[in-house]
C-alpha cells in the first residue's frame, strides 16, 4: 500500500484508490498513468489474484506490495479501478460499492447493465454522474470509434457503421504478449512456433499469431459473429442512445 501526503499546497482533495488487476497488462498501464498524471492519491492499494499477491510494484519511487483482492479490500477506498476480467468485476465490484467506492470497470461485466452508465468522456461524460456506484467503459475498439464519429454524428447523423478492426494481442493479456514474442523468436530462429493462447485460451484449437492475423477475437456467437464484434455493435447502440436522449 502507498500513502502520499494527506495535504497539498493547493488543498486539492486526495483520494484513496484501488487498482484491481494491478499485475496485468492493463493494470500496469493504469498505475503508470496514475503516476504520470500525478493523480491526487492519498492511499494507493494494488490488488490481484492470490497467485500474484506478494509481488511488488514501484510507484513514485516507492515499492508497493500487491495484495489479494477480497471483498474487505475496499474498506476506505474512494475509487476502485477494475481491470482483472469480467468474473472478478462481477464478484468484487458490488462489495466495493457497498463500502462506498466508485468503481470504474474496464471489463464487459456491467457494460450492458441498464443501471450502469456506459461512458466515453468525449461522447457522453455527463452520464457518469448517473452512476449507482459503477461506471463502465466500452471495449477499446468501441471507444476509439465513437470518439472519432461523435462530431460527424452531431453534424450529420449516422444511420449505419461498417468497421474493421486490427487489434493488438495485448487485448488477450500479458500471456498473449509473451506468446507473440516467443513465437516471433522461434520463427526467426527457424523453429516451429507453438500456439498455446490465441485466439481464445479456453478453446481447444489455437493458431500462430507471429507474422499472422487471426480473424477471430473471442468466441463465435450463434449469429456467426464473435463476441468482440457483438460488443462493438451493442455498446455503440447503447452509447448512441444516450446521445439521442439529450
UniProtKB/TrEMBL annotation:
Claim: NADP is one of the keywords in the record: yes
Catalytic activity: L-aspartate 4-semialdehyde + phosphate + NADP(+) = 4-phospho-L-aspartate + NADPH + H(+)
Top-rank taxon: Bacteria
EC number: 1.2.1.11
Key words of the record: Amino-acid biosynthesis, Diaminopimelate biosynthesis, Lysine biosynthesis, Methionine biosynthesis, NADP, Oxidoreductase, Threonine biosynthesis
Family matches, as SMART domains: Semialdhyde_dh (SM00859)
Amino-acid biosynthesis is among the record's keywords: yes
Domain Semialdehyde dehydrogenase NAD-binding: 16-131
A Pfam family reported for this protein in Swiss-Prot or TrEMBL: Semialdhyde_dh
Record PANTHER family: ASPARTATE-SEMIALDEHYDE DEHYDROGENASE, DEHYDROGENASE, PUTATIVE-RELATED
Annotated family: Belongs to the aspartate-semialdehyde dehydrogenase family.
Assembly and oligomerization: Homodimer.
Name the UniProt record assigns to this protein: Aspartate-semialdehyde dehydrogenase
Amino acid at each position: 500500500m502507498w500513502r502520499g501526503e494527506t495535504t497539498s499546497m493547493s488543498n486539492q482533495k486526495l483520494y484513496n484508490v484501488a487498482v484491481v488487476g494491478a499485475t496485468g497488462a492493463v493494470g500496469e498501464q493504469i498505475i503508470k498513468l496514475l503516476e504520470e498524471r500525478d493523480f491526487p492519491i492519498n492511499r494507493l492499494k494494488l490488488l490481484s489474484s492470490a497467485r500474484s499477491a506478494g509481488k511488488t510494484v514501484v510507484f513514485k519511487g516507492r515499492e508497493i506490495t500487491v495484495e489479494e483482492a477480497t471483498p474487505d479490500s475496499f474498506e476506505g477506498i474512494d475509487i476502485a479501478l477494475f481491470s482483472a476480467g469480467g468474473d472478478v468485476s462481477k464478484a468484487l465490484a458490488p462489495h466495493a460499492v457497498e463500502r462506498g467506492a466508485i468503481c470504474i470497470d474496464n471489463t464487459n461485466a456491467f457494460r450492458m447493465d441498464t443501471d450502469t452508465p456506459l461512458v466515453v468522456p468525449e461522447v457522453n461524460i455527463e452520464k457518469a454522474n448517473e452512476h449507482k456506484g459503477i461506471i463502465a467503459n466500452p471495449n477499446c475498439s468501441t471507444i476509439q470509434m465513437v470518439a472519432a464519429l461523435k462530431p460527424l454524428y452531431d453534424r450529420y447523423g449516422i444511420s449505419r457503421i461498417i468497421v474493421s478492426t486490427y487489434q493488438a494481442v495485448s487485448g488477450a493479456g500479458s500471456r498473449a504478449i509473451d506468446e507473440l514474442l516467443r513465437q516471433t523468436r522461434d520463427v526467426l530462429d527457424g523453429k516451429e512456433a507453438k500456439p498455446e493462447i490465441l485466439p481464445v485460451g479456453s478453446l481447444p484449437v489455437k493458431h500462430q499469431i507471429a507474422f499472422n492475423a487471426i480473424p477471430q477475437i473471442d468466441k463465435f456467437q450463434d449469429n456467426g459473429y464473435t463476441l468482440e464484434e457483438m460488443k462493438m455493435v451493442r455498446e455503440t447502440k447503447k452509447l448512441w442512445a444516450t446521445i439521442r436522449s439529450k
